[in-house]
Amino acid sequence: MNKAYREVEQHMRETSAIGSAAGLVGWDQETMMPPKAAGSRAEQSAALAGVIHEKIVDPAIGRALKSLSKNPKDMSEAEKVCVREWLRDYMRAVKVPTELVQEIARVTTLAHEAWIRARKTSDFKVFAPWLEKIMRLTRKEAEHIGYEEHPYDALLDHYEPGMTVRQLDPVIAALQRGLAPIAKRLIGSKERPDTSLLRRRYPEADQEAICREVIKLMGLDMDAARLDRSAHPFCCGIAPTDVRITTRFDERWLPQALYGVIHESGHALYEQGLPEKSFGTPLAEGVSHGIHESQSRLWENLIGRGLPFVRLIHPMLKKRFPSQLSGVSARDLYRALGRVKSTPIRVEADEVTYNLHIALRYKLEKGLLVGKIKVRDLPGLWNEGMKELLGIKPRNDAEGVLQDTHWSQGLIGYFPTYLIGNLAAAQLWAAIRREVPCAEAMIARGKLSPVLEWLRTRIHRHGRRFSPAALIERATGESLNQRHFLDYIKTKYGGIYGIGEWTQAR
Amino acid sequence: MNKAYREVEQHMRETSAIGSAAGLVGWDQETMMPPKAAGSRAEQSAALAGVIHEKIVDPAIGRALKSLSKNPKDMSEAEKVCVREWLRDYMRAVKVPTELVQEIARVTTLAHEAWIRARKTSDFKVFAPWLEKIMRLTRKEAEHIGYEEHPYDALLDHYEPGMTVRQLDPVIAALQRGLAPIAKRLIGSKERPDTSLLRRRYPEADQEAICREVIKLMGLDMDAARLDRSAHPFCCGIAPTDVRITTRFDERWLPQALYGVIHESGHALYEQGLPEKSFGTPLAEGVSHGIHESQSRLWENLIGRGLPFVRLIHPMLKKRFPSQLSGVSARDLYRALGRVKSTPIRVEADEVTYNLHIALRYKLEKGLLVGKIKVRDLPGLWNEGMKELLGIKPRNDAEGVLQDTHWSQGLIGYFPTYLIGNLAAAQLWAAIRREVPCAEAMIARGKLSPVLEWLRTRIHRHGRRFSPAALIERATGESLNQRHFLDYIKTKYGGIYGIGEWTQAR
Question: How far is A279 from chain B (nearest CA, A)?
Answer without folding.
Answer: 8
